[in-house]
Amino acid sequence: MNLTLHLTADCNLRCRYCYETHCKNHMAWPTARQAVDLAFSYGHKTNGFSLFGGEPLLERALAEEICRYAMAEAQRRGVGVRFKMTTNGTLLDEDFLKFANDHDLEIALSHDGLLQDEQRLTRDGRPTRTQLEPVIDLLLRYQPRAVALQTVTPETVGGMAESVRWLYERGFSRINSVIDYRPDAGWDDDSLAVLQEQYEAVADLMEARFDEPRPLLFLPFLVKISAYLNDRPCLECKLGMRQPSVAEDGSIYPCNQFLYLPEYRMGHVSTGVDREKQRSIYQASLAPETDCQGCAIEDRCRHHCACLNFSLTRDMHRVAPVQCEHERILIPVADDLAARLYEKRSARFLLNYKEDTLE
């Protein structure tokens, strides 16, 4: 079973695009232990825990205790366990990275590259890019495949490709990028046109470096390419089933976007998942998005994600216009990149995708 554990709602940064309402809520150890026990009680061969915030390293001792306890339980039960954490990096140090490597904890760093100081600031408004320079070196020394997570806004979109280049040159091979989807973010035709230009520039960068010993792997493109070539939907949401979220008080919700909403509460770590409520939420998520039926990219875009839809429109089945426009930009650029890699007989491309799916 996979669970997202919300260790704290607090954060030591005040990123300009953040959608969280920061408060001092945090998870207590007895609650975390019950969550781990609940996950193992399902008897799965592999279990996963995503340690989330806020900034999860504000609760570093709790994060370490969860990993130690869950790893010991996994060994005792003869099953697998894995951990993930996304952090802003400001509290990351070598001791924690040693601990992470000893406990199979995969760390992703939220970092906007050259755009970092425009958006990711401390509580008192100070920039963070210089502070994180040695942290990047440490992280990549211990976890060379760590992912850098970049967020792009209408104000910063013109620097997206150069920021991807900068993150790659700093040592990140795996780079993810999301746009600021907030309804008031301010995307318009002009900024979306710039976004398309930037995606095309990133595709050029990725093509040029795809077969190098350390390739540039831009994950938004790879997700689209892999889903198409392997003939599977871009995203299977499985709301409430794939990875429920546990709030700081131990309440269980179907996903991060539904936290603290009483109508979507589906149990507590002390009593378990309300299976009837879980099934009803999942079944409700399966209804088709009527506005998307008949669209040429219906099977390739993220409109199936009930969580994203709900976070943007408060309706699991209504897709935000900016999300639709974003997918219409991203997918053709990813497809063109795949065609170019195939035409040049990229060794890494042909190795990762079956030849008979490429015709």
How would you describe the overall organization of this protein?
With 359 residues, this protein is of the alpha/beta class. It is 41% helix and 13% strand. It is built from 12 helices and 11 strands. It has a 9-stranded mixed beta sheet with strand order 7-6-5-4-3-2-1-8-9. Strands 10-11 form a two-stranded antiparallel ribbon. Strand 5, helix 6 and strand 6 form a beta-alpha-beta unit. Helix 7 runs parallel beside helix 11. The longest helix has 23 residues. The mean pLDDT is 92.
How many angstroms separate the termini? 37 Å
Instruction: Catalogue the unreliable spans.
Output: none
The Cα radius of gyration reads 21 Å
Biggest sheet descriptor: 9 strands, mixed
Strand arrangement across the biggest beta sheet: 7-6-5-4-3-2-1-8-9
Basic shape: globular
Count every beta strand, where a strand is a DSSP E run of 2 or more residues.
11
Figure out the total of helices.
12
Structural class call reads alpha/beta
Can you give the mean pLDDT?
92
Helix percent reads 40-55%
Q: Give the amount of beta strand, in percent.
A: 5-15%
Give the topology string: H per helix, E per strand.
Answer: EHEHEHEHHEHEHEHEEEEHHHH
